Every structure is written in C-alpha cells, then in structure tokens.
Amino acid sequence: MASEETYLTQEGEDALRRELKQLKEGRRPALARKLKEAAAQGDLKENADYHDAKEQLGFIEGRVLQIEAILRNAIVVDSGGSNDAVRIGSTVVIQEDGIDEDEEYRIVGSAEANPRARKISEKSPIGSALLGQKRGEKVRVKTPDGVIQLKIVDIR
Fold it and tell me: H helices within the chain, ranges in order?
C-alpha cells in the first residue's frame, strides 16, 4: 500500500523529532521501569499501577510509530523564498467579506495543523482554497457553515 505524501515545515519536522526523542529517551524508559516495578508487586489482575503503566506504554508506542511514519514519508518544504503566492509554509493575512478584522494563519502540512495555534492544513477547505493565490485576490471557500469569500491581504 502506497503511503500518502506528508508535507512539513522545517519547524514542524523539528518539533516532531524533539517529541520522538522525548518519548523514546524519556517517557518510554520511565514507563517501562514503572511497569516492571508494578509487575514485581505480584497479582496483576488487580494491580492498577501495572494496568495504568501498560496502557500508557501502549499509547506511547503508538505515537512513536505514528511520528516515525510521518517523518519517513515527509516532504519538508522550504519556508523561504518568494511571497508572491500562497504555499505551504506561508503566513497569510485574510479578511472575510463583511468583516473588518484581519485574520492571520500559517499554511502547514496536515501532520502539524493546529487551528488553535492558527496553523491550518493545506488540505483544509480554507488552506486548499488559498494555495497558489496572490495578494489582493479573493477566493470563495465552501465551509461547513456555507460559502464564504476571503480576500488575501498579505502573504509572508
């Protein structure tokens, strides 16, 4: 089965590598010790520490595998260069029709999207509509709340 390409900014790749290192060198060994200590207490059926450590270790192993897969298939995009058109890594200032306030978003790959941090995926409705567009252009975006029109105020 072919894997889908994953785009990351350099910042996103660095953050994933830091998280992976912390999981492998910090949390995983600590939980393995906790699991071993809990198992040494005997009767595992009613040992809450054992079951908790085992569950947490399972989550960590899953996250390690997920991060490794992302990094293995990632295409790291160069955030430098021209700001003529919106691309992955661009910071875009937009204004919705009828609303006077500007909003600023960074277009990132789906693996590092975080709307609360104003990082939106290139695959999201707004992100995909903005890609390739230029300063001053207007785009129509189909969102779950209906169609909106956005003007690109600035690209950085």
Answer: 10-22, 28-40, 48-73, 125-130
